[in-house]
Amino acid sequence: MARDKLDMLLRLRRLAVQDRMRELALALRTEDEAGRTKAACAQTLVQETAQARSLAERDAALAGFVPWRARATQAVLDADAQLTAAGEASRTAQAMLGEARGAVRAMELAIERRNEAAELGVQRSAQHALDDATRRPGGTHR
Prior knowledge:
mainly alpha, 2 helices, Helix Hairpins
């Protein structure tokens, strides 16, 4: 009965590790995407600013640049916040994966200890049987 419970717990722990690995992979993909989005926003901001400056040299009526720049700057800030959140999610997923792997290892060690104890019990029983078989009838023990 104890064997079945430990084996079941080990299977559950291994499933948890698989779940944490999937969560970590998703978090890393999200973090990577957030980084690419931030980089794209920053690059767009640089390019559009350069173009606006070039146009401003020829046309003083670029009133739309100021609101655009505010929106673009906010987009970069938003992307940065998203990148930070994605990084935190990745670190959390990594920690959870580590915990799940630790739980699996604990179950593996418990099963190993149980098996070693069972083997020791078998060896002791065999030794007792051997001792009983080698005793002389009516003799004394040393």
